[in-house]
Amino acid sequence: MAMARSLRRTNPITLILAAVLAIGFFLFIVSPTSSTSNERRNYAAQNPLSPASKPFRKDQNGHPIPPVVRYPMNNKTGTANPVENREHVLILTPLVRFYPGYWENLSKFTYPHQLLSLGFIIPKNREGNAATSALQAAIKKTQSGPEEGRFASITILRQDFDPPLVSQDEKERHKLENQKVRREAMSRARNSLLFTTLGPSSAWVLWLDADIVETPPTLIQDLAKHDKAVIVPNCYQRYHNPDTKQMDIRPYDYNSWVDTTRSLEIAAQLGPDEIMLEGYGEKPTYRSLMAHLADRSPSANVNQLMELDGVGGTALLVKADVHRDGAMFPAFPFYHMVETEGFAKMARRLGWKCFGLPNYFVYHYNE
């Protein structure tokens, strides 16, 4: 019988090659190679908090397998030896204006930078836009510099509400009539920043105001070594004294205080929506202010502790467990206090004590 013309013209080698290719393609489809699996495993996200740029490892059916990560939260409590114990510190800063001195001082911290994460919240206005640009430029320079100077992570948030004051000049923002609305807005900003950035590995939270331009480089270690749940240094300001014609220092933050019998009597007479504020002669509180109890002599004991009923937030170190326990910054009158002072009241009612270091100074920018 004569063969069909099409088969006569087909080269047997072509048929063999076609069969081999078909078998190879079939094996490739049904049995992925081990090298492909290894590549996918190495490229997969390490945990559910990894950036979305890395996909999760997939099973044989192509379904993603997000790994299960267990965080033993009972082991996250901050200790008196945070460097030796490799404890992560979250530094949080509400920022309206960018002060180069703030960033320069922060960059000099001796605490291992790979254990420091930074978080900022900035208002959405013209001044906030300028602050964001300046901050991003500083971050880019630091994070592209020597590895030991880079921070573990940096988060920048923009407020989802308008600031209550148009001007952020020192005189305007410290007017008595502006305090309630200003500090309630500050509480909202602090809470937004805290709830967004606090992670399972955070052992401490350092609240550091954007206008703190001078601290000891060992600030975190110096505060943490006292092993207190909430601790705050004394915030002062350098200025030119017109009387002595020399540089001098003066108290700046009056929000760290101890209640007195008289101050408690005043609070008992206030309406539910009224708050007590420090530093205003027209409305004295008669509290004992840590700012006025400092020993400025060269022989002062910088480790001297005092228990406080209210704390300021210029440089406030908090064990992360205090925040996880529910202590936040009330944006409403809480026992006649808001923001950081309200936080101290809330922390104390949760069973945590607050302390201050009257002879340990940090310095605020002088406008």
Account of the protein in words:
Belongs to the ANP1/MMN9/VAN1 family. It is found in: Golgi apparatus membrane. Pfam families: Anp1 (PF03452). The chain starts with a helix and ends with a strand. The model is unreliable at 32-52 (pLDDT under 50). It has helices spanning 5-8, 12-30, 34-43, 100-107, 126-143, 170-173, 179-197, 219-224, 261-268, 320-324, 339-349; strands at residues 88-94, 116-122, 153-158, 202-208, 212-214, 230-241, 246-251, 257-258, 288-289, 306-308, 315-319, 354-364. It has 367 residues and is an alpha/beta fold. Strands 1, 2, 3, 4, 5, 6, 7, 10, 11 and 12 form a ten-stranded mixed β-sheet that branches. A two-stranded antiparallel sheet has the order 8-9. It has one domain (90-364): Spore Coat Polysaccharide Biosynthesis Protein SpsA, Chain A (Alpha-Beta Complex).
Secondary structure: elements and pairs:
Layout: H1 5-8, H2 12-30, H3 34-43, E1 88-94, H4 100-107, E2 116-122, H5 126-143, E3 153-158, H6 170-173, H7 179-197, E4 202-208, E5 212-214, H8 219-224, E6 230-241, E7 246-251, E8 257-258, H9 261-268, E9 288-289, E10 306-308, E11 315-319, H10 320-324, H11 339-349, E12 354-364
Parallel strand pairs: 1-2, 1-4, 2-3, 6-12
Antiparallel strand pairs: 4-11, 5-12, 6-7, 6-11, 8-9, 10-12
